[in-house]
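TICKET #2291
ISSUE: user wants both folds in one file
ATTACHMENT 1:
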Amino acid sequence: VRLVESGGGSVQTGGSLRLSCAASGLPNGRNDFGWFRQAAGKTREGVAEIARNGSLRYADSVKGRFTISQDNGKNSLYLQMNSLKFEDTAIYYCAARPWWLSRNAEYKYWGQGTQVTVSS
């Protein structure tokens, strides 16, 4: 299984970025996908999730600004980030949890991360 993020970069406060995650090797079936981030000196936190049943979930800090989506073939994951704030600066990771794991299990597959830097 391989997850590869792209689309990170530097942007000014209020700007937008779109992160992409290309997934390969995942088991057939409905899987859970998520975006996580880790800022310097902080623990990793969940940002957004699209569950195997299609439901969406967002961290309170990004609601109304970020949108998670998949393509029709479900081998790519996206995170549209609008109205970016300084505190959104972090390394962003995509992750996948295969269908045969419980919804409560830890995410099993992770990408290498992409840096997002927001400056004033």
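ATTACHMENT 2:
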Amino acid sequence: QVQLVESGGGSVQPGASLRLSCAASGDISRIRCMGWMRQRPGGDRREPVARIDVNEVKSIADSVKGRFTISRDNAKNTLYLQMNSLKPEDTAMYYCAATRFLICTEANYNYWGQGTQVTVSS
């Protein structure tokens, strides 16, 4: 089993920055891809934000490209999401997820964190 614990969410004004962290523990040697998903208020499904696989191949959603960056620290078993120039439409619950498959998709994710709330409002 793999446990994922997110942190770093909060309430900020538009234009601010936040860094989300996701600490992984357990049988992490099986993990091939990790990513961030979010669910906006009133949204009926989660949307992909960013992902990074074991070969360091990254993918960023068009809606956050140029503002968000995904990275990881293998020594700390931690995944990060640096979020800059935050907009009100970035308000959402952000989830860290991981999969044993090389490709991260919502359907492929085997493990999920509990989520961390990000609220962007003036």
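RESOLUTION: both attachments delivered.
EXTRA DETAIL ON ATTACHMENT 2: The CA atoms of residues 95 and 114 lie 7 Å apart.
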